[in-house]
Amino acid sequence: MEIMMSIDHAHILKFDLNLLVAFDALMSERNVTRAAQRIGTSQSALSHNLGRLRALLSDELFVRSARGIEPTPRAQELAETVSGILCTIQSRLIEPEQFDPATDERTFTLGMTDYLESLLMPPLLASVREQAPHVDFVIRSLDQDYPTDLLDNGEIDLAIGKVETGNELHKRRKLWSERYVILSNPETTGGSGTIDLEAFLATPQAVIVSKDGRCRLVDEVLAERGLKRRAAVTTPHLFTLPILVRDTHVIAAVPASFARAWAPVFGLAISPGPVDIPPYDISLGWHTSSDRNAGHVWLRQQVLAALEPVRAKVLEANAGSDIALIAAE
Fold first, then answer.
1. Nearest to 143 by CA among 211, 245, 59
2. What percent of the chain has pLDDT over 90?
3. Up-side HSE of residue 10: CA atoms within 13 Å toward CB?
4. How many CB atoms are located within 10 Å of the residue 265 CB?
5. Residue 318 half-sphere exposure, CB side, CA atoms within 13 Å?
6. Please, are residues 150 and 111 in contact by the beta-carbon 8 Å criterion?
7. Residue 328 pLDDT level (bands cut at 50, 70, 90)
8. pTM surpassing 0.90?
9. Could you give the CA distance from residue 90 to residue 119 in angstroms, rounded to a whole number?
10. How far apart are CA 27 and CA 50, in angstroms?
11. Angle at alpha carbon of residue 144, lines to 141 and 148, rounded to 5°
């Protein structure tokens, strides 16, 4: 039998909810002025609440630095718990707002790569225009390694892509698994398009990178084997790769579904990767605080419905233990 912890109501009364709100705002902004603006209070009131928290927790919590304020180890330890408490209060206790797609005016911000945008937005816009004529969308470029940062900061409503770094503050629904194949110009690879390991490492490549300048999945697999490829050009834009492969002497590792769609258009060949690069999941991700929000629930339903026919094509492109060589048409 599970033993429930006894609640010290008198002690908990000291923890005014406003103290937790102030703490969470300071953790997010790392600046007293911006944190006060974020929660709609004055700097003096925020500083007062911070003083109360310091006394209650016997820790400085935040210290001044050249960039503003920095959390102490104790504050970093508490951050996730405090954020989780506030998310639970917002999603479980506060009455969810109502949403009528036929009449409500609302703008949703979606984070995704340019390729996923091309798959999702045409069917999503076509569907939404009929159901919700006053709903608009803003697209944010998604850094695939850090999508949850944008969710935590409220900069996007949904993340669509490699949403793998979340915790209990994030919800995730897998859409499909994607794997890498090699795009090449058969005119520069001897006509067959086959890329073996020696050619893969020796041939200059066009490489998709995140904001920190790395293509984590491919380069980490190579590094584990003591190998390194040559990145002749790095870019955050997937759609430039077929042009670069067609017009220059480079190859590119790209998602299989992208390769299947665009290789015939640019007269390119597709080859299996010469090293075993594990597939990665493409998922729909959102913050826990939005889980029961009526507008967000409706939005997620629309996104999933719009991606359903797309998903079938992507699964077909990624089917099988190894992709067959597709010569350029």
1. 211
2. 33
3. 0
4. 10
5. 22
6. yes
7. very low
8. no
9. 33
10. 12
11. 90
Instruction: Write down the H helix ranges in the chain.
Output: 9-12, 17-29, 32-39, 43-57, 73-88, 114-131, 147-152, 197-202, 216-224, 241-247, 256-266, 294-317
Task: Determine the distance from the C-alpha atom of residue 265 to the mean position of all C-alpha atoms in its chain, rounded to a whole number.
Answer: 29
List the structure tokens of 53: 């928290």
285 contacts 147 by C-beta, under 8 angstroms: yes
**What is residue 23's predicted lDDT score, i.e. its pLDDT?**
92
DSSP string, 148-188: HHHHHTTS-SEEEE---S--TTEEEEEEEEE-EEEEE-TTT
Q: ∠ CA 213-217-221 to the nearest 5 degrees?
A: 115
21, 38 contact by CB (below 8 A): no
Helix (H, G, I), strand (E, B) or coil at 233: strand
Cβ–Cβ under 8 Å, residues 69 and 30: yes
Amino acid identity, residue 98?
Answer: Q
Three-state SS for 204? coil
Give tens-digit pLDDT for 150-161: 887 788 999 998
Read off the pLDDT of residues 159-214 as tens digits, 9 standing for 90 and up. Answer: 998 887 556 778 889 899 888 899 999 887 665 557 888 888 989 999 987 665 55
Give the C-alpha distances (Å, rounded to integers) separating 135 from 125, 130, 158, 283: 10, 10, 15, 23
Q: Decide if 71 contacts 100 (C-beta within 8 A).
A: no
Cβ neighbors of 14 (< 8 A, separation 6 or more) are 56
Greatest Cα-to-Cα distance within the chain, rounded to the nearest angstrom? 79
3-state secondary structure of 283: strand
